[in-house]
Amino acid sequence: MWLNRKIFISLILLSWILPAAFAQEQFNYNPKGKRNPFIPLVTPEGRLLKLDKQETTSTHGLLIEGIIYDKLGRSFAIVNSIIVGVGDRVGEFQVLKILEDKIVFIKQGELLEVGLTKKEVK
């Protein structure tokens, strides 16, 4: 009888302690305007998911996402998700010059300066 009572009390205590020991804190991912990397890109049937493109403010369809500036002239930039250097083409535009905060493009003899938009990190 005494043994059964100990087992019963032990089971009750374990039923209270074990869930608390294995409880996990809820984690909420903040994508900060980007695609959530935890959402799969392919359905279980093997089809690619279409992701909604976010509205971006770009000049003439050119979106500068980043610049790696080198004073010696070996600068690179990410434009429309493509890594480019001086002389490379993005659509109908050719990269003429990469500066610290903007890129100068040329299209049919006309120059176009597109600045790097700085986003606040929250």
Kindly list the characteristics that best describe this protein.
single chain; 122 residues; alpha+beta; four-stranded antiparallel beta sheet; three-stranded antiparallel beta sheet; 7 strands; elongated
Question: How does this model look, in words?
Answer:
With 122 residues, this protein is an alpha+beta fold. The longest helix is centred in the first third of the chain and has 21 residues, at 2-22. Helices cover 17% and strands 27% of the residues. A hairpin with a 7-residue loop joins strand 1 and strand 2. The chain contains one helix and seven strands; from the N terminus they run H-E-E-E-E-E-E-E. Strands 4-5-6-7 form a four-stranded antiparallel beta sheet, with no helix packed on it. The mean pLDDT is 79.
